[in-house]
Amino acid sequence: MLLIAVGSQNPVKLEAARIGATQALSLPDANGQLRIQPSDIDIIGSIVESGVRAQPLDDDECITGAAQRAITALEAVPGAEYGIGLEGGVVSVRGGLFACAWCVVVDGWGKTGMASTGRFQLPPRVVELVQQGMELGEADDLVFGRNDSKIHEGACGILTHGRLMRSQFYSPAVLLAFIRFMNEAIFT
Predict the structure, then answer these.
(1) Which residues, 6+ apart, have CB-to-CB distance to 59 below 8 Å?
(2) Which of 47, 73, 88, 140 is the most exposed place for a label (fewest CB within 10 A)?
(3) In which domain, by residue range, is 22 found?
């Protein structure tokens, strides 16, 4: 069993970690056989602190939060081979506010991989509330009449009318953060 620690107990982040890590680590060997079966990957969430604001406001803050979550989760789960941290945030680009997230993956030997999600523009009323200090999930709940959207569809799920849920939005960043570990020979 391959144990992976995730720096959150948010079901969206756990699902994104499961999807992305399974895609990254279930690579076929030279004979076409999977090296690790998806059923052999166990994802364990931990309650950890990100060390950044509740609503990160730039890429650096998201990366710092994701790294802190990954490192702390790896330390908190005995036997874990990887720690995954996901940190959602908002960034200002050309006068608009865009939602995104960063993923950091760490192992016990000090290797780190990281990647970000795509970005999408937030509507003016949500931007106004976030700029007043509200977390994006809370702003979404207020504007769109939802409850706990950040542990369900997220802003991307709401704004795409369910076509791209938050876990689907985050999972490619997890896969991409594992590039470092999927290609050891060219990263040494």
Answers:
(1) 89, 91, 100, 102, 116
(2) 47
(3) 2-119+165-186
